[in-house]
Structure formats: structure tokens, C-alpha cells
Amino acid sequence: MPLHKTVIHLWMSTSNLELTRDSPPHVPPHRRMSLREPPPHARASFGVAGAVGVVVNMVLFVMDIVSDGLLAYMLWRQAQQDEAWSEPVTWFIITLCIILVPMVVINVCSLLWYSQNKQCLGEYSVLHKVGKVGTVQRVLMHLLLLGPLVRYMDILQYGVKMQQERKHLEMGMRGSSSILRRTPRGEVYAVLQMVISRDSAMLDMMHSFLQDAPQLIFQVFLLYRRPELITGTLKDSPYTTAVQVWKIMLGVAAISWSLVTYQDELRRSVPGKDKLSCCASFTCLMWRAAIVASRVMAIGSFAAIYAPEGVRWALTVHMREDGTVHMPFPIVTACVLAAHWLIMVAWIHAQGTNFCGGDSEGQRQPVLEFLYNCVMGVVHVFSYINVKDTPSRRRMAFFYAFCLIENTVMISVWCVEMEPHLSVWFRAVMVFSVEVLWLVGICCLIGYYAFLHPDKDNLGTSRNNASWRS
Known about the structure:
This protein is mainly alpha-helical. The protein has helices at residues 4-13, 29-33, 48-81, 87-121, 126-143, 147-164, 184-225, 227-230, 240-269, 278-303, 311-314, 329-350, 366-379, 393-417, 424-452, and strands at residues 166-171, 177-182, 318-319, 325-326. The protein has a two-stranded antiparallel sheet. Helix 3 packs antiparallel against helix 9 (240-269) and helix 10 (278-303) runs antiparallel to helix 15 (424-452).
């Protein structure tokens, strides 16, 4: 369910932009005080920074596709070089599933949201504006699993048109002064640009946590699981390690960037919220990257605790000869993450979220709201997002304390269980990295809310606002 219904409702109910905070001086003071807050798209702008952000998203998307394809190819080559060894085939199939299944889900959601745009906006929808030929092109691009790339191009197109459709409105009796305002066509482009940007931010975050996050954990698992596969000693393939490390670094960057972009788009859609500054965005990026990297290293290391019996024994629950049940650590990790996800879904549901709002008659949609809570539960396996615009300091403290305990237990078990197979210094570096990255992330979080938050001046004005908000 996309986030644009509230935006569209605000636009439809406050489309007359003549009465805003920038009203001309001849409006009486009591009239100015009673004016409504302008809709979010009235404050929308698209300059160089906005264009650069879209280009960064496009580059990350293309690099992600290229790295996925290259990674799958390298694992396939390893499988072809030793046909008698079945593990590379299994790793290749798992990697391919992690790549393709989320891409199909994301592109299906993107098409559905285009259709919902058409129902909500009518003749102002994107599909109406592009015509039949453009609609067919978009469907084909989504069938090729390139739907997000089309959305980025839409953002650029409507952002440029929004800035071009402006004119000076004469104020006063003799035109002695004028103000710059968008034309009615420019207002339409502003709404379209905001709707597409919001949907794209949600799709980026879904893509990051449905594909990049599992891929990161699995590649960390492989780096531990089969070192001879990735160091080139098997069949002279020295590049697989570099590809996997590159994929891990790119995945952390993509996840972190998607979270920052999503947070910025949320602020843009709420009246009275200012955009993030460059310093705030960079600090948020460091906060998210450090926390995600710490989580991935802990989870991936825990899942990769050595099982010498082979791939079948590493991925299945089975009975030992002495009658005991053996549950390998990849299965244990899956159970731990599933329990974490269930706790997060219940926690988010208890907060009474209203992401999906109501239908045209104002009735709540509990099924869609539950699906949203499930998606946010996946996000909260790795990082925190404030799902309600209410004080969040206690919720953040609970979440990060919970993750710190989980990370510490996982990496401690790994350190003990891997003792016969890895040197002391390597285990010490890994434990130190997991804990320090978490600490760096918390320091960046505190620095953002203390010094760089757009509403930092208002955080302490009242008891209710004394806690952090997104």
C-alpha cells in the first residue's frame, strides 16, 4: 500500500494556494492567522540537490543489478569447474532466488501502485499523462524487472517540469510587486513528483530489506563457509572474494541510503516538517550504515558457525547416530530472526499504526495495516524506523538495547564455537568490530538528534516534545 493517499487528500482539499503563509501584505492579520497550512506539495522544490539524489538512486540500482549478476555468474563458474561438488550449485541457486524473488515482488508492487495512482488521481495520474505508448513501455520495463528505473526517470521528468511551470503573479493595484508561483499545470507536476517520490522511496526500502539484507547475510555466511571457494585455491578463481566483499559493502550502502531517503520523503509529505540538511543526511547515513553493518556481521557470523558434514547437514535438521536431534546454526539463525520479526510485528501493532489510513468512506483497513506491520517488522530486524510521529526516545532505547543484547550473544557464541578453526586475533577483531560499529551508530544517532535534527529547537519546548521524533 503506497503512502500517497494522505498526500492526495491534502492536495484535493487545499488545492487553492492563494491563501498561504506567504499571503500578500493586504490580507488582514486575523485572516492570515486563520489560514490553513499549505499542502505538502506547495513546498516542493527540485533543484540540483534533488536531481543528484535521484541520480545516486539510479546509480545504486544499476550497480546493485550488475553486482548481483556478477556474483551469480562467479558462483555458477565455480559450480561448473567442479561438477562432482554440489555445494557451489546449492549456493548459486540460493543466490539466484534471493536476487529474483524480491525483484519480482518489487516490480509487481510498482505496477499495482501505478494503477492505484490512476484510480486516485484520475486524469492527473502518471499513466494518463504518458498515454498508451508510455503505459506499454512502463509495463515492458516492469516485466524486465526494471520498474524502479522508470520511476526514477519519472521523478526527474516531473521535477524539471514542476520547476519550469512557474510565473510571476502581479500583486497590488498597479503591479508594483509580484510573487513567483507555479502554474496550475505546475501544481499537477508537483503532486505527481511527490507521489512518485514517495512510492519510489518505499520501493527502495522494500528492495533493500527483501533482497540486499538477506544477500548480505548469505554472502558473509559463504565467506566463512567455503574459504577455499572464495580465495581461489579451488580452480584458480581469485575474483570471487572481491565480488562478494564488494556486494556486502554496496548492500550496506544501499540499505542505509534507502532508509535516509525514506525518512526524508516522510518529512516532505507532512505539513510543517523541514527537509534534512546535507550534514543531517550524512550523519543519518553513518548512523544507519554502522548499525546495519554491525547487525549483518553478527547474524552472518552466527549463521556460519562451522559444520564439517557438508551442505546437506548445514541446511537441514536431522537425527544423529546417538538419537539426538542436530539443528545446524543456519536453521538456528533463521529461528532467531523469525522470533525477532514476530516480536517486532507485535510491537509495531501495539503502537496502533495508521499507515494505510482509511478507504474512501473513512473506514480503517486492518488487513492492509497488518501487512504494513509485517513489512516494517522485516525492517526492524536490522534497523529502527519511527512508524508514528510521536515521541520515540523510549522506543529507540528498547530497540537498540534489544539488538545490542542479540548481537553480543550471537558474536560471543560464534567466538567460542569457532575457536578450533580461526585464530585468536581474527575472532577478537570480529567481536570488536561488531560492538564498535554499534557504538558508532548510537553516537551518530545521538549527534543527529542533539545537533542536526530539523526540529531540534522545538524538541525541548514542552514535556511532550522532549522525546525524539523522526
